[in-house]
Design brief:
elongated; mainly alpha; Arc Repressor Mutant, subunit A; two-stranded antiparallel ribbon
């Protein structure tokens, strides 16, 4: 079974949450909201490129936007394969965390 990397998981979840409004800036803002820090755009776009290559997201060009000087904005949409990948990673997370009642690692370290 091929699993998402943590970065792929975070970006793919951001695209899923943004439903139709996922482009570079909004994805970066969603990641910041989710994990508490901004990722460089280079990491976001590199990860989106990997997700596209795997068939997990699709890149969609908008019509030219006047507020962008007539330039196109590229949106990302999650594909069924991306949803399936998220379901698999959630299942794995649930399985590996099952049975953990107390995260008092200090007590375990002694």
């Amino acid at each position: 079974m091929i699993l998402l990397s943590r970065g792929e998981e975070i970006i793919l979840l951001a695209v899923y949450k943004l439903q139709g409004n996922a482009y570079g800036v909004t994805i970066r803002e969603q990641v910041n909201d989710d994990i508490g820090r901004y990722w460089p755009f280079g990491i976001i776009y590199k990860t989106l490129k990997k997700l596209r290559a795997k068939g997990y997201v699709e890149k969609i060009a908008s019509d030219p936007l006047s507020e962008r000087g007539g330039r196109t904005r590229y949106y990302y949409e999650i594909m069924p394969a991306g949803i399936s990948a998220l379901e698999k990673i959630l299942s794995v997370h649930s399985a590996i965390w099952r049975g953990i009642q107390d995260l008092n690692f200090e007590k375990k370290a002694k």
